[in-house]
Amino acid sequence: MGADASPGTLDPALSERLAYTAEEATLILGIGRDLIYNGIRVGHLRSKKAGSRRITPRRIRS
Fold it and tell me: Is the distance from CB of 7 to CB of 1 less than 8 angstroms?
């Protein structure tokens, strides 16, 4: 989120990224973090470790 964005609002720059953290994906998709991590675990969402974070690409695997 940008400095002037309030909690729960989507930063327009967020939509331009190629990959998102699980927390960012929850804002974009409107689903809970557990559902994001479950999607990664069962293979519906791809992800990579980036330090201590998991990032998932903008494009969802078909």
Answer: yes
Mean pLDDT of the chain: 80
pTM, rounded to two decimals: 0.66
CA distance 3 to 36: 25
The arithmetic mean of pLDDT across residues 26-32, rounded, is 89
Q: What are phi and psi of 28, to 5 degrees?
A: -70, -45
Query: Which pair of tokens denotes residue 44?
Result: 């519906």
CA torsion, ordered 42, 48, 53, 56, to nearest 10 deg: -70
Domain ranges of the chain: 17-57
Tokens for 61, please give them: 């695997």
pLDDT at 58: 81
Helix segments in the chain, DSSP class H: 22-29, 33-42
